[in-house]
């Protein structure tokens, strides 16, 4: 891959986009382009078209989206569906219209049916009903995958979709209402510890099984996708290993040094019973994760402590 190629990273200030930016910079890519949502609102079709005509990137990485955990998805179904549809439609269509050679679309493992056989293979897409709490977000992402697939089929362009499992790492959202489970736990255990080891209340029963990937591994997978031509349109990106939410809580409790009680609020929803990606397709293509969960959480907690006064807390309205 030409290190001078102009690469536009949509969402370069986000957890994933910023990790991709750092990874590409480290690899020597010299022509990276990124604009914040204040500089370019990706919901504004005219502005996005104007930007593409002016910048003419060769490669586009779509890491821009409205992202959130169960509560945010459940309470704000319309923006989770519509904002994501509009953002990705504008990026995908402007890329097609302006000669983009390679487009990497980031989706999410929630695109797969709630009760599909585990681990989730790429070919179970659209074989059953979605998890109701995040179906809005999932439907938008499925549309993005299909738009890239359609472009690949009709125009033979290298538009590829990567489906990451749950991600975590530096620059995550640590707001207790809108964040994902892992950063929420880091913050809850940390705050309970510094307030005298107060009990920590967590949602659900702790029984569901989940998989977590460090965002630097995700960025590495994106670099791999950039530097290689895939034969297919959809690839899962994960570790291929899962653990119960209870085990995750105990691991984070140990790493943060919290010594109080954990209370499970089973009146709150658990979500999908198990969500583990089958990562064999990506492995066959030549990529696999390298950062272990304990090491990754330890590094994230160190980052959290160093940045505790300015952690990101996304509020929805
Ligand atoms: N986090 C996870 O666990 C996870 C898991 C699977 C997949 N993913 C996928 O990875 C991608 C990035 O997620 P993330 O966790 O990095 O999210 P994030 O930290 O919330 O970042 C999202 C980025 O999107 C940008 N954005 C949102 N609305 C925009 C708009 N209207 N105009 C311009 N930019 C806009 C934001 O820009 P500003 O900061 O400038 O506002 C932000 O930089 C998403 O596609 C997500 O579905 C994430």
UniProtKB/TrEMBL annotation:
Record domain NAD-dependent epimerase/dehydratase: where: 7-238
UniProt catalytic activity: GDP-beta-L-fucose + NADP(+) = GDP-4-dehydro-alpha-D-rhamnose + NADPH + H(+)
Keyword Isomerase: yes
EC number: 1.1.1.271
Keyword Nucleus among record annotations: no
Active-site residue numbers: 137
Site (Important for catalytic activity) residue list: 108, 110
Keywords annotated in UniProt: Isomerase, Multifunctional enzyme, NADP, Oxidoreductase
Domain of life (superkingdom): Bacteria
Annotated binding of substrate, by residue: 188, 203, 210, 270
Pathway(s): Nucleotide-sugar biosynthesis; GDP-L-fucose biosynthesis via de novo pathway; GDP-L-fucose from GDP-alpha-D-mannose: step 2/2
Binding locations of NADP(+): 11-17, 106-109, 141, 164-167, 180
InterPro entries named in the record: Epimerase_deHydtase, GDP_fucose/colitose_synth, NAD(P)-bd_dom_sf
Entry function: Catalyzes the two-step NADP-dependent conversion of GDP-4-dehydro-6-deoxy-D-mannose to GDP-fucose, involving an epimerase and a reductase reaction.
Family per similarity comment: Belongs to the NAD(P)-dependent epimerase/dehydratase family. Fucose synthase subfamily.
Protein name stated in the entry: GDP-L-fucose synthase
Organism: Cyclobacterium jeungdonense
């Amino acid at each position: 891959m030409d290190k001078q190629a102009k690469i536009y990273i949509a969402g370069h200030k986000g957890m994933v986009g910023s990790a991709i930016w750092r990874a590409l910079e480290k690899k020597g890519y010299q022509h990276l382009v990124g604009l914040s949502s204040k500089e370019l609102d990706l919901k504004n079709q005219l502005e996005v078209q104007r930007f593409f005509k002016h910048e003419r990137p060769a490669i586009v990485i779509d890491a821009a989206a409205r992202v959130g955990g169960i509560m945010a998805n459940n309470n704000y179904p319309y923006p989770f569906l519509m904002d994501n549809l509009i953002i990705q439609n504008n990026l995908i269509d402007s890329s097609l219209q302006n000669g983009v050679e390679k487009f990497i679309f980031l989706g999410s493992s929630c695109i797969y049916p709630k009760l599909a056989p585990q681990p989730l293979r790429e070919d179970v897409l659209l074989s059953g009903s979605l998890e109701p709490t995040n179906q809005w977000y999932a439907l938008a992402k499925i549309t993005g995958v299909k738009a890239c697939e359609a472009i690949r089929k009709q125009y033979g362009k290298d538009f590829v979709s990567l489906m990451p499992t749950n991600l975590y790492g530096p620059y995550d959202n640590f707001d207790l209402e809108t964040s994902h489970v892992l950063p929420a736990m880091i913050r809850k255990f940390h705050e309970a510890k510094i307030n005298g080891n107060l009990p920590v209340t967590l949602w659900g029963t702790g029984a569901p099984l989940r998989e977590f990937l460090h965002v630097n591994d995700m960025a590495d997978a994106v670099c791999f996708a950039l530097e290689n031509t895939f034969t297919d349109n959809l690839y899962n990106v994960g570790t291929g290993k899962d653990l119960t939410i209870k085990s995750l809580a105990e691991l984070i409790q140990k790493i943060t040094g919290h010594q109080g009680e954990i209370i499970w609020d089973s009146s709150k929803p658990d979500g999908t019973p198990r969500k583990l990606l089958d990562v064999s397709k990506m492995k066959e293509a030549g990529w696999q994760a390298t950062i272990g969960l304990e090491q990754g959480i330890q590094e994230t907690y160190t980052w959290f402590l160093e940045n505790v006064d300015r952690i990101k807390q996304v509020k929805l309205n």
